[in-house]
What does this fold into?
Amino acid sequence: MKKTIILLLMCAMLSGCNADGAADISVQTTEALTVTTAETIEITEVTSATTAKPIETNEEKTTVEETTAEETTQTEEASEVEDVKTERTPVSYYGEMLVDGNKLVGSNTGEQVRVTGMSFFWSNWSQKYYTSDYVDYLVDEYNCEIVRCSYGIQDNGVPHDTSCEPLIEDVIEQAIERGVYVIVDWHSHGAHNNPDEAIAYFEKLAEKYGSYDNLIFEIYNEPTQVSWSTVKDYAEKVIPAIRKYSDNLVIVGSPTWSQDVTSAAANPVEGENIAYTLHFYAGTHKQWLRDNADKAISAGIPLFVTEWGSVNADGNGSIDKNSTEEWFAWMDKNNISSCNWAVNDKDEGSSIFVQDSTLSETGKYIKKLISERTENAEWRNK
It folds into this structure.
């Protein structure tokens, strides 16, 4: 490279001379050939810069290496933070809920699962709350570990409003995103009158979301004054449709608004991974119902309180704090999972919101009860 540059300089000088200036050629040539070493290196470096990456000095290289190392460390730390955020959820910790005798355990832990959260109101009357934003609100503000969708079904077994289904799916998908459990409840008092509707819906739901550990199927909310054999027959028609695509937990109601759990315990539904719902309202239901629940547990079936209220059984009235705290002491003792009724702003005692979506007195009280049990949950500290 150096020889090429010197020859080019010589040629340029020669071509710029005429015959009369021949005497100066030898001088110019000598001058050209006596370019200092420093100047030659400078030319070489400038020329090289046009064709190659500049050479880093040792100091520059050290700085680059330190910056790269710092960026790598920051990336790794950010990745670790993201991993912790992703891992520290109820579902990622416990996994799928599985029946083990009269208990519900996590597929990841093999230990008993107890999660606490909220139930949405009838979907056909409270659609504005069936959004991803409200799922986030319940997870972030209430520390909910589970939410429940109440798909409103008429007593003849037909949905009140099928346009609710995309909203329910929005809730399911956001629950999956946030790593919490989600119950889809066939919210009916007469589902046994039309099992075909339930079969079609739950089969479709299981096919779409049944591979996610988050999803729990509640196939009959509250049978009323019907026999247990009627409810059992209905359940044994619907569950096989779910099992085509999912082995996730199925929850079955019992007669008398899901209070007659002893009948279910005496003659359980045939199948795997099946639990039974117990509903209570603290203002109406007292020790006698807990006694029945204890008998059902002792007989060998697992219970899940998919709906409870701090008020009267009609969903109205004032908060019965003493009875509510007795119920919570019982659920604490037995590690029973639960969802409170209800995420709604209807003008009644059980609603957690008033009509401008601020918290009601019930909402404030329930928020405290849930947070006390979930803010230091096992899954947060592992």
In short: The first helix runs from residue 2 to 15. Residues 1-69, 78-85 have pLDDT under 50 and may be disordered.
